[in-house]
Amino acid sequence: MRQAQNIAMSDGALANAANVIEANNAIGDNPDIWLRGNSGEELDENDEIVFQTLVRAILIAKFMEINRLRRVGADDIADVLTADFSSFLFEHPGTRRTWTEDRQVTTEHRSLLVPGRRITYYQFTETVISQLEQLDRL
User: Helices in 1-138 by DSSP H: which ranges?
Assistant: First the structure.
């Protein structure tokens, strides 16, 4: 059983590494858009689409890795990666803006599609919001 878990952890880590490498390569192909988007510069429509695509690729890879670790019981590692994720958002304001806007749109859509229910965030999202607030106070 332990061997199967170790194999699953290794396979998942390799898949995540491939996703992160792919996202980083995309950023490397568009460094000017990445830098301008994160510095808050105004982007034209095409560059904004590229920037949001880059951001979402990074955010999805990070979220999926943290989620995978939680599912296999590696909460201590997931906690560290969640803190790293919060720090990443703090250091990249354009990425944080995109993450915040996506979260708001998703919440609005959920409240329309699932009426009468209180919409709550995943524990991950609530933790990131709290950690960003802590970093903002520094």
Answer: 2-29, 31-39, 45-71, 75-91, 93-113, 123-137
Are 59 and 107 within 8 A, CB to CB? no
Reported pTM: 0.79
- How far is the C-alpha of 76 from the C-alpha of 37, rounded, in Å? 32
What's the average pLDDT block by block, 10 residues per block, for the chain (138 residues)?
70 75 88 93 93 90 87 90 95 92 86 73 84 96
Digit-coded pLDDT (tens) for 2-18? 777 667 667 777 777 78
Comparing CA positions, the residue from 31, 19, 87 lying closest to residue 56 is 19
* Best CA proximity match to 56, nearest among 24, 95, 13, 4: 95
DSSP per residue, 43-76: --HHHHHHHHHHHHHHHHHHHHHHHHHHHTT-HH
CA distance 77 to 88: 16
